[in-house]
Amino acid sequence: MQPEEVDAARDAALAAIAAASDLEDLKRVRTEHAGDRSPLALANREIGALPPQARKEAGQRVGQARGAVNQALAARQEVLEAEHEERILVEETVDVTLPTDRRPAGARHPITTGSELIADIFVAMGWEVAEGPVIEAEWLNFDALNLGADHPARTMQDTFWTAPEGSGVVLRTHTSPVQARTMLTRTPPIYVVCPGRVFRTDEYDATHSPMFHQVEGLAIDEGISMAHLKGTLDHFATQLFGEGITTRFRPSYFPFTEPSAEVDLRCFVCKGVDAASCRTCRGEGWIEWGGCGVVNPRVLTACGVDPERYTGFAFGMGIDRTLMFRHGLSDLRALFEGDIRFTTAFGSEL
Amino acid sequence: MKAPLSWIRDYVDLPATVTTEQLTDRLTDLGLKLEAIHSAADGITGPLVVGKVLTMEPEPQKNGKTINWCTVDVGDANGTGEPQGIVCGAHNFAPGDLVVVILPGGVLPGNFEISARKTYGHLSSGMICSARELGLGDDHDGIIVLPADAGQPGTDAFGVLGLDEEVIEFEINPDRAYGLSLRGVAREAALAFDGTYRDPALRSTPAANGEGYEVVVDDPAGCPVFVARTVTGFDPSATTPAWLAERITHAGMRPISLAVDITNYVMLETGRPIHGYDLDKLQGPIRVRRAAEGEQMTTLDGAKRVLSPEDLVVTDDSGIIGLGGVMGGETTEMSATTTNVLVEAAHWDAVSMFRTGKRHKISSEAGKRNERGVDPTICEAAADRVVELLVELGGGTAQPGVTVVGTPPASPQVRIGYDLPARVSGIDIDSETVVAHLQAIGATVDADADGVTVTPPPWRPDITDPFDLVEEVVRIVGYDQVPSVLPREAAGRGLTRNQHLRRRIGRTLAGAGCVEVVSFPFVGAATFDGLGLPADDARRHTVPLANPLSAEEPAFTTTLLPGVLKAAGRNVGRGAPGVALFETATVAFPVDRGPAPIYGVDRRPDPAELDKLIEALPLQPLHLAVVLAGERERGGWWGAGRDAGWADAIEIVRILATELGVAIETSQTQLMPWHPGRCASFSVAGVQLGHAGELHPQVCAHYGLPARSAAVEIDLDVLMAHATAVTPGPAFSSLPVAKEDVALVVAHDVPSSTVEAALREGAGDLLESVRLFDVYTGEQVGEGKKSLAFALRFRAPDRTLTEAETSAARDAAVARAAEVAGAVQR
């Protein structure tokens, strides 16, 4: 083969490689221009028949030509393979907006997660979470808390009694018996918070329920005063409702505390500014939140805490009610209906 | 307590600039909580004016009624000055009388809009009003006829009728019973604004003498003071003056008759309940004693009462004539013909009042005050005030006889150190402030170097303890002065193990697609019938309630299933295609150990006493219930969905057990409300854990759930008690695994768990895992048999297993299965 023929065969091969549009095409080009029967392969075979002085030159030329072709083939192969892979990925495109709700989501109840959120605020202050049974001894629910049998305030809490009459056992009307149990079984300092179910014989409506949830707190230590109560509730309010949301006290009456106070929460929606148009606090600037006070020394005595050495404070508020205004719920019954559309909205942490 | 503002101002001089809001704010700060401010004119919109009847023409109607066609001078109120033509159905007035007219455009309570309308052949332009139409009481015998000096025609009638009155409604706490009187409210108002106070109970009264009606008190502890006065010649036809009727109406009581209204007026004024007897119906001396068991009487509400020896009664020679301090009797009640009145003002033991009121379910204005505690020193003053009004308004004659039996009990003295209010409140309060504020509430204060010895005022029986005095001082200093200080940081131990585990259980269940619900725990026989429980099922043995809200659900539940099933049915009813719910709560099983003791409160109960208290309570384990109904996985573009079934319920238990590291044993059982062939029983270390499986078809139908719905109920206390405390780090080999599949044919009733356990046992230590991957029944394995296909994985910690080793282990496993379960390899 003449040198110019080798060059021509090489150029033809390179042109064909460059023109190969896919891997299939390239395979054909490879057979045609680099295969055993390709012009350059034939030329290579001819070299042996050439005179020795011509053999070297021809060998070099054909070798270079074949090298160039193989290199081009490899390069093209790589390019076409990459293109091929890319095309497959493109072809595999799906509609990612298709619904993917194969497994319906679960959720925990906001009363549970709300109770945990509250508990965690106190646990972060070094408090502990105390618990007790919902069917409770009358003595712990009432007497130990300075609510003797003839105390008019007993009628303030409409109580479910277990039969027969005189059983001495009630469905607890507040979580306060847990405080009594804590004082009876531990020695101060005591810092506990008690969330839980409580019962009153209230007819069921948008704002009342025979079963609801309370959280109470109890601190017994040396030198405890109302100032510590205020500090604790302010901190609690801020953690639950945001910066600047504090509390105020109004005189009230609870047998287990003296002095006693109602605690109001600064409205976290209007913050007391432009309260007149606020639907959350109905123009008050404050929201009634719960009751609190200094633990009555009579309660300390009944529960075995030395009232000369220790003072304490206690507070309590409704978890359901707190959730209602925190989340803008208008009907308490939504909490107890069990409609999954309600509960799933809250996820598994509050 | 509803207190008309003008009545408060009768006893206290308040600065003219004080608004009602300022007054109620300060009183709320002092502990008399504002409930609402009412206007007496609530629901009435003018024009409401004084009218003078010019003419009235009676016109008999076909329906037998006679109406009056009137012309009424309403001044310029109608814009024309012309007389107003009005049809009126009442007859208790005459031309020249002043009446109350509401003109067209006005609105009466009940959103009753007044317009000019044609009636009985006339155009009636307005209405002549009765007291009831204006919300001023029940008197509907006729229209209101105003006194001749009430005002010129056209005068705005709101002021004339006292409708411009503001009425403050307070919520009175049990410790502030003195706030159930104008006397008490005014005292607090005086305290709030440092105003001059005039005590309506401070009056000179005639001394007791021997000429009064004879009264014998057999139980001075129950009735320490009994004052009796008599008024004769009272005019029973005398009507209650408008001002008095308005005041007691505004205060929330109904005018009845002059004599009764006067006793109520004085009760509202002083806080001291008064009882009036028809003197002519009394026979012989009045006696106060405790009732005998089973004695009977009829109270003036017509109710027959069977009495207890704890009830205090008032008697005369005829027998029982009153339930002392709570309610009078029928036989000596004042009536429309009473002319001679015996006035009783007595002080009663508050506890006795509370018990009697509770026992007989009587809630009266008198009882409410007597059971909270009334000033015992004002019986004479209150009786004298009643006598004064009976004479003044009813034309009676006060008889000179004055009976006073007993003396008021003294208030107990209470001592505090000067530092106590500051220590308890955290506010800097000096000794002068302590003394001044205690004096301000009316206490007698004996101050010395260290503190004060205080005699509380007689209207404050609630003040018995040092901390009661602290509250009095602090409320006057102001609760807004309490600083906000965090207590020292406690070294807490964080959540308990069970608290952590409960959170973990809840999150695991939510992760498994279950939604938590909170249900009421009340159940009844019908609830258990709905679950199909047999008559002797232990779950029917409940803790009964003495006063359930519903007779159908009179007990505390032993199972959480009714709650979750009901909620699931509700969701299905609302169109949910699938629902997975869970609830964790305590249930209750009675222990039947008799009543829980009631101890004293002067000391801590000893440990044995406490144990006795706790042991009397029902067992209250924490349960978990789950219901899975309808779609467990949804259908969609990926393919068909899948409904929940028995296996999903069992899987929930397995997921929880795995999460908590508890090894549970599963066995076949039969228990309602589950399908008799599809119920698993679980136990942990031999302790019963609970059940899961498919619900009985009848139960699904009862709760409106789709067929094959499944449920779980387990005892979480048992599960948590066996939770792995500290998980040991697992060791595993990274050498190649050897897999062997075996298919074993066994009788259809051999549990797969038995076969699996045998394989494990037989395979020995080289076995890494065994998993059943297929169950086959059919011709190929024969009648009454099933084929179970297991995948066995073998691996050694230190070497690659040879084929021979693996085969030997597999053969040993199969051999053990053959031995234990009669398994034959296919």
TrEMBL record, chain B:
Ranges of residues in domain B5: 409-484
Any Pfam family: FDX-ACB
Domain FDX-ACB residue range list: 733-826
Example GO BP: phenylalanyl-tRNA aminoacylation
EC number: 6.1.1.20
Reactions performed catalytically: tRNA(Phe) + L-phenylalanine + ATP = L-phenylalanyl-tRNA(Phe) + AMP + diphosphate + H(+)
Stated name of the protein: Phenylalanine--tRNA ligase beta subunit
HAMAP family documented for this protein: Phe_tRNA_synth_beta1
Species name: Nocardioides humilatus
InterPro entries: aa-tRNA-synth_II/BPL/LPL, B3/B4_tRNA-bd, DNA-bd_dom_put_sf, Fdx_antiC-bd, Fdx_antiC-bd_sf, NA-bd_OB-fold, Phe-tRNA-ligase_IIc_bsu, Phe-tRNA-ligase_IIc_bsu_bact
Taxonomic placement: Bacteria, Bacillati, Actinomycetota, Actinomycetes, Propionibacteriales
Domain (TRNA-binding) ranges: 42-158
Annotated binding of Mg(2+), by residue: 462, 468, 471-472
Record SUPFAM superfamilies: Anticodon-binding domain of PheRS (SSF54991), Class II aaRS and biotin synthetases (SSF55681), Nucleic acid-binding proteins (SSF50249), PheT/TilS domain (SSF56037), Putative DNA-binding domain (SSF46955)
